[in-house]
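Give me the 3D structure for Pyruvate phosphate dikinase-like enzyme.
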Amino acid sequence: MESMEQISTGLKGADEVIDTLRPGDNIIWQVDSFEAYSFVVERFVQQAAADHRRLVYIHFGCHAPLIDKEALLEKGADFEMFTLDAGMGFESFTSSVYQIITAEGKNAFYVFDCLSELQEFWCSDLMTGNFFQVTCPYLFERDAVTYFALYRNAHTQDTIARIREVTQLLLNLYYIDSRYYLHPLKVWKRYSPVMFLPHLLTEGGSECITDSASSAELFSRLQIHTKKLDYWDLSFEEAKPYLSASLAEQAYVKENLQNLLIGKRSRIAALSREFFTLEDLIQIGGREIGTGYIGGKSVGMLLARKILETKNPDFYKEHMERHDSYYIGSDVFYTYIVQNGGWRLRMQQKTGEGYFTAAAELREILLSGHFPTTIKEQIMVMLEYFGQSPIIVRSSSLLEDNFGNAFAGKYDSFFCPNQGTPEERYDAFLDAVRKVYASTMSREALEYRQNRGLADKDEQMALLVQRVSGDYHGKYFFPHCAGVGNSSNLFVWDKNTDPSKGMLRLVFGMGTRAVDRVNSDYPRIVALDKPERPPLLAYGDERKFSQHYVDVINLEENEFQTIPIESVRGLPLKTNVRLFMEPDFELARHFRETGHRNRNVPDIVSFTRLLRHTDFPKALENILAILSHTYDYPVDIEFTCNFNKEEHYRINLLQCRPLQTKGLGRKIDFPENVDREQAYFSSKGNFMGGNVRLPVHYFIFVRIKPYLKLTEPQKYAIANQIGTLNHILKDRHAVLIGPGRWGTTTPALGVPVRFTDLCNMNAICEVSYEKLGLMPDLSYGSHFFQDIVESNIFYIALFQNERDVYFNEEKILRQPNHLETLLAGSSEEELYPDVIHVTDMRDENIEIYSDIVTQRLICT
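Predicted structure for Pyruvate phosphate dikinase-like enzyme (860 residues):
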């Protein structure tokens, strides 16, 4: 087809969005009503008549004609209406249409009645698809421009797939609150960065909807079905008539749906029964791809939202961002394994001898497999729904986010920036799903399950697909702030802090910097009883212990990125930037004193205005209190928050799980008259784990100076030897002490152990060496913290430049080093006794004492 003539739809806004029509275009409008289709047809016909086009109307529906023939002819339009009887059968009807197209020649404009009405005559979705697959290519060859319609949710996805395959344009038209919204799903050979986002059609054009809150507000009101009716679907369909029945009459069908989606026996399931209504369960089922459980993360998110909506409806309506998530059922995971020939490996992996060895091969299969056609089609519908909005694919396994087992960070999640053509976005999404599935076979996840006694448990992987919360800020997409909230704050730095009020780990931009133990960066730690007071100023200047980088989605480059915080300067944040940042007043004072008044003063991410002058901290405190009270258990949440120009905020609750914590414990009697110079270490604050009195039988100490002299491979060898000692000294009261951060991915900042290399320690201690660039990370709320708490490990950070901190390194080094004795006969190629010093203190009666009220800590 050579012609590139641009043709108007008669709707200026639609022309802007899809870059007008072209000769040969077949346009499928997916609508909810006859009136919606009539709306676009009327304007198309008027425009065609005004442009002196040949217009043909194929009328077969059991309703009055869409087009007023007499009115058009009176205006001199070149118009013809053919009334056909679809009841004569597929072949006769299709042949008649074919003959009309042949006789009309090239360049005619056509309007067909809604194709969904053919079902009344043929009782077959298959035939509707056949008709379109025959007719559409012929119209294309004739350079025709043709309007068709389908009623949304009236057809199997197989039919929609066949129609989508051959049509040039597939457009969703929504009518909400007396306004029309256009959402293109397929536009052949045309593209713009916002083409596949929803657009409000106005008299003067169109308005693109880019922010997550408005998108979710719009789309969450729609019920989009993703699959054919099978037994699973029939269960939900048969439940719908009970929506108007009494609660007693609903009980059986509600329990059936609850068992299908969530399960029968668990504390989370019991809470779900209490709060989810039958309508809630039907809505969840309507957004599930495939079948099976939706998994722990999905249940936790949905349940927390429902609790807040029930307990505080006014706040929920005013300040909570709606969600419009999808769920890929756990049965899809099993189906994927079976279809890709991995089931025998799956069985081998469940045995003791194959637990790790078979997992590696199974992981490769999971990374490269293909999906069933029906599932792929449902995924396409979901991606069309989200358009070009960034999304995230999150693990939601059956055991995840349950009481006692958080699986924090053990399974992967992947952001899909979701830019590019529908085909590119689809391929990227499937790749993300494969990677999450493969993460079930990662060594870290397998070791976690093994250490928690879950190795023989069924661990099916469901998936939670969420719209990323945030908005377009220039070429970047991110929320204004995000973080982790804990209802119990056991990391307190002031004796007047109330741990029961909870705490936040708050960052600017994407929340990944709050849940991960990020190198060379510091989230803002907020004690919710005194949110305006920063905890870290005593350890150095405010700039040093603040956030220096921000995680974003770069829409132009279609990837998740970490950028310097300075790159955010000048971006259109669409709210008051001072909520999150303020000038570095100390640096400004230094410039004034040194005669550099005109130098540019950079901002610090401090959240001062947010924490001092808004009710945001109180809102988070109340959310945590309501959830923990309802769970009757401490909770951990992940959230984002976005603001408008008036500084009004909406919180998006992304996740909620029970948080295993150590209580304050009974008051500890400290030894009397202990000179701190006699202690191994002492501190005021900066520990996690409540009141303890822990015996110390072994110190494992990594010496800073010889460690820094090692090559990077040698530093990883140190990490491996720590892991070997961790295994040897299990249940033997060992305390691990080292420079900087345990578990860092940057060996220059600490020892790069995996958590399973230190999981058997009674306590771990991170020591600061500020002049050498190694500092602890007070990472309460991170995945690393979750691991520490679940494993009942006491945590200490020693900031040696602090007046109340004392660390007697020489006292440890005066004891004999038992490294070579302990590792004799191990597989280690080279030992490093000058770096790792292991002391045997069993005869010394050494103990660690802590008191959370006075914030006193001593090891003596």
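Residues 733 and 813 are 19 Å apart (CA to CA). Let me know if you want a second pass.
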